[in-house]
């Protein structure tokens, strides 16, 4: 391995959050500073190359890229091989980091929001630290903290659980366990779900949480049709009784949050 | 109470994160969309009026305010009275929300980053939901998710604990409990501290966490001198042994994060 570079670094670049919605000009969402830096980077590691190229075209439309898109070095994040115990070997990370180790600034970009938060990328960031590279993060929004802010639930103590177990009994047990922790510690619980299961998750939470627990759902925040609803489980149940069902978008990511009374 | 307004709403406005550091032009940090909306709001509820006026002057410098600063309606967030059990009576929230209930868009702003996340404001957001107002959040960064992204620790499962207990024995017990939870659930733990105690907290974490636990510290991210260091507790200890102490900025907020192996 080459000696740690003094100039090479990993730069975490936030993406917009309008995945799946009508895209806006990117300077409506990201700051000039982020756009300037993104336009100057020649090396990228990305969640998916297709989405990264579409991001870079949006950047180019408001802040011309330093080099043509075709000339940029764009690698996709390596995924763990099956049976590898969910880890990527260090030699693979080192190969991905070669441009940074030889002095380049390398951008890390995910398909939406901040890389490495509820998104892939943490393995690469950890490898960058382990190889003595500087890690920089540009200011950008994460859908989780936007949802939490909009919920009115406790933002001084919260936990993001990722996805709940799929099997109904396990899911119910975990929901109850997290509700108890929420009550004991005053900790808001956040989970996400594959969009086509949004409605089923909301139904399950309404059934399994206590009536006095406050439950909030945020969807498409920062997009024109974005919304956040926050009320007690009892009030959600009354709403379902009136409407017969609880319609939820099945193609847009949502964040589900609860805080026990 | 007046009937819920169809136009009035609470708009959560992100602030910059360069609190205490050299301020940059605000359009380097916030998007055009956020600046345009912030410049148009005539009613505000804020963590502190002084910091809000300085924010609005920075906005005005790049995106002229719709009305002069002196003409804006700026209220400070009510604080719970002592002995009131840490709650603000609903009548107080309702008074604060009067402009929104009569049809205005009211901005909520904290001194740095996103309102209501590791910052005051959640009580007002909850009251807005309870009074049938729409709650909107503009895209902006939270120092917590930026720190987590930069740490390379698990961003698919994490918890923000706020401040640890001050008493040494209680603090140690809580650190150990959160380390065990981190090991069991793969959950990254995040805490913050009053800046002048940053160095003491880092020392305590280095002593109390297991050598193999990964510990990361982020400070001043998005500012020119910002940094994030992430390594095992064992590596932090070796660094202290070499340097004699572990210098930390005593005026800048830092985020401390750990993930047990």
Q: What is the CATH domain class of the largest domain in chain A?
A: Alpha Beta
Query: What characteristic shape of chain A results from the CA principal axes?
Result: globular
Spatial extent as radius of gyration of chain A: 21 Å
Report how far the terminal alpha carbons of chain A are from each other: 54 Å
Low-pLDDT ranges of chain A: 1-5
CATH architecture label name of the largest domain in chain A:
3-Layer(aba) Sandwich
- Sequence of secondary-structure elements of chain A: EHEHEHHEHEHEHEHEEHE
Largest interface: A-B, 64 and 64 residues
Please count the helical segments of chain A.
Answer: 9
Question: How many separate domains make up the residues of chain A?
Answer: 2
Plain-language structure description:
- The structure is a homodimer of 261-residue chains.
- Chain A contains 9 helices and 10 strands.
- Chain A is α/β, with parallel strands linked by helices and 261 residues long.
- Chain A has 2 domains: 9-137, Tetrapyrrole methylase, N-terminal domain (Cobalt-precorrin-4 Transmethylase, domain 1, 3-Layer(aba) Sandwich); 143-259, Methyltransferase, Cobalt-precorrin-4 Transmethylase, Domain 2 (2-Layer Sandwich).
- In chain A, strand 6, helix 7 (168-185) and strand 7 form a beta-alpha-beta unit.
- In chain A, helix 3 crosses helix 5.
- The first copy, chain A, is globular.
- The interface between A and B is large, with 64 and 64 residues.
- Strand 6 (158-163) of chain A pairs antiparallel with strand 6 of chain B.
